[in-house]
Design goal:
With 139 residues, the chain is an alpha/beta fold. 29% of the residues lie in helices and 25% in strands. The strands form 2 sheets. Strands 5-4-3-6-7 form a 5-stranded mixed β-sheet. Strands 1-2 form a two-stranded antiparallel sheet. Strand 1 and strand 2 form a beta hairpin. The protein is globular, with a radius of gyration of 14 Å. It starts with 9 loop residues before the first strand and ends in a 5-residue tail after the last helix.
């Protein structure tokens, strides 16, 4: 729920590197549940790439959590759309999808620098990018 700590998980990315969500404390993190078969996900990819490249050096990270596809399908799409962030293939067990109760795509969770869920159920497009950018505005 919004305002609660994000469920912590460990994962191995598409390049076989191990991670824990807690290693991203101190950064604003977008959990992006997606698939190449999902038309809204495909449409959102260039927008996410743009905001990632704009804000990454300011402490923004994306963890892309792909649903049910293998690396031979996902890698060309990632490369084509310059999605240069961490990607996870959430395969047969769909562990991360179950933890976050994802049943539709795309699904986004925006986490604060201290790992609290700031936003969920964001619609692709302007609402998502505006919510991310707000986290980097000086207060």
């Amino acid at each position: 729920e919004i305002g609660s700590k994000a469920p912590v998980f460990s994962f191995t990315d598409i390049d076989h590197n191990s991670h824990r969500l807690t290693e991203f404390i101190g950064k604003v993190v977008l959990l992006d549940f997606w698939g190449t078969w999902c038309a809204p996900c495909r449409a959102e990819a260039p927008k996410l790439a743009s905001i990632y490249h704009k804000l990454h050096n300011k402490g923004f990270e994306i963890i892309g959590i792909n649903f049910g596809e293998d690396s031979t399908t996902v890698r060309p799409f990632i490369s084509e759309h310059q999605m240069n962030w961490i990607h996870v293939l959430d395969g047969k067990n769909e562990t991360l999808h179950r933890i976050y109760r994802v049943q539709g795509w795309p699904k986004y969770f925006l986490l604060s620098k201290d790992g609290v869920i700031i936003s969920k159920d964001l619609r692709p497009g302007e609402e998502l990018t505006n919510d991310i950018q707000r986290q980097f505005q000086t207060k």
